[in-house]
Amino acid sequence: MREYLFVLIIAAAVTYLLTPLVRRGAIAINAQHAPRARDVHVKPTPLLGGLAMYGGLAAALLVAGRLSYLQQAFPSWRTIPGLLMAGGLLVIVGMVDDRWGLGAIAKLAAQIAASGIIVWSGVYLSWIPGAGGQTVSLEPDLSYTVTILIIVATINAVNFIDGLDGLASGIVGISAIAYLVYSYYLTNSVGVQSQSVPAVVSAVLAGMCIGFLPHNFNPARIFMGDTGALLLGLLLAYGPIASTASLDPNILVKYTGAQPINRFPTILPLLIPIGIWLIPYTDLVLAVIRRTAKGMSPFAADGQHLHHRLLNLGHSTRSAVLLMYLWAALFSGLVVGLSVVRISLIWFAFITVGAFAALLLATAPKLRPWHNGSGGKRARGTHARSHDTRSRDPASATADLAAPAGGAGADALPPLPAHLAAPVGLPVPGMPPPAAHGDPPTRRGP
After folding, report:
1. What is the mean pLDDT, run by run of 10 residues, along the chain of 446 residues?
2. Quick one: which of 173, 254, 320, 368 is 20 to 30 A from 227 by CA?
């Protein structure tokens, strides 16, 4: 574990030290994200944080390639160059998009090209778990296609959740730590050195996120932008795919008797990625369904992501991010715990149900038995949130409640008929007194 922790620290330190330099460079070239109607930040914020992350990735991989224990773990000379080339391509495309903007088709083409480089480096999904403890082998063409689809989907899923300060980097970092634990445990159990590759990549990914998070947590001084979101999505997909590509499924079953690797040998390789990718994939699927149902493009932005829904429930930016951290830790920790933690399943189930119940009550205040139905606390929380985050709607009032431009509000009194109007100078109940300079009083909206 010392080697993995060393690689993690290298990635974290380099990313942390490079981020202020990248921030100054982003300001110099005006690569900044101006606030939009659906955004939470209130002032232009520098982008290109992914460039510092790529520096941490390159430094950590080069160090890992020089460590004697890890050097023999890389199955091919293409492993490290493939990762650096694929990541570098996405960083370049992300920089162009962050500064000048790119169309969805151009970014999709770059993502497919980067995924193809990963396949060229020898990492692809060669088998998947099947029913009855069996495995399903994939033909080469199908294997390459499925691998590219998974990588592209994961890249876009991470990009979709990058909507609050520190959200994407925190969730991806938690997922990377969970997969590092699983990969390390698997490597020690089966004695397959090639399993060190996904463990190394997970350690590097966790380090990148840890190093960037102090600069990115609310209030963020820099955003990762597409430069970072595309890179994190690539690396998040790389770990589980690399693990499957380098592991004989028969080993999982063979070692289950004397030295258990996990309770469900051929199912956990499928459950682990699902648990790790659950939050970004859920947000991705809901967004695609929501937008296509409205006749919009799946890539059209909106303000209805999971983190927006938490804000609408009354949570502040920080509490919404922390809640999603906890959900990510619960999902990824659950599936990893099935393999690593050696306790009775009944106790494991009780702990899991309790954690779900506690997080559900924390997430949705209306579900709490002690919830105040009068709405007083809710109203105060909403009012406070209006100062903590800016509105995610183009206008602060709905169309049916908004006052006409230059006119009175909806609750204003209608003009009095001429025969009922009071003479100028006499007070009218419910209206302000005449102005000192003799002008007639003016009715105001609420």
Report:
1. 89 96 92 66 81 95 82 76 94 92 90 95 80 72 91 88 83 90 77 73 94 90 91 91 73 53 52 70 76 74 66 72 84 77 71 76 66 46 40 38 40 47 49 45 36
2. 320
In this prediction, residue 233 carries a pLDDT of 92
> Which residues are within 8 A (CB) of 114 and not within 5 positions of it... i.e. 6 or more apart?
86, 87, 89, 90, 151, 230, 234
For tokens 């004695």, what's the residue?
191
- What pLDDT, on the 0 to 100 scale, is given for residue 312? 66
pTM of the model: 0.72
| Domains in the chain: boundaries | 2-299
Neighbours of 136 (CB within 10 A): 10
Torsion on CA atoms 326, 328, 330, 335, rounded to nearest 10? -170
Helix or strand or coil: residue 136?
Answer: strand
Q: What angle do CA 95, 98, 102 make, to 5 degrees?
A: 90
Q: Which of 268, 263, 278 is nearest to 330 (CA)?
A: 278
Distance, CA of 216 to CA of 164 (rounded, Å): 9
- The secondary element (H helix, E strand) that includes residue 379 is helix 376-388
* Summary count for the chain: helices (H), strands (E): 15, 4
How many Cβ atoms sit within 10 Å of the Cβ of residue 120?
15
Kindly state the helix (H) or strand (E) to which residue 127 belongs, with its residue range: strand 127-129
Count the helix, strand and coil residues of the chain and give each as a percent rounded to the nearest 5.
60, 0, 35
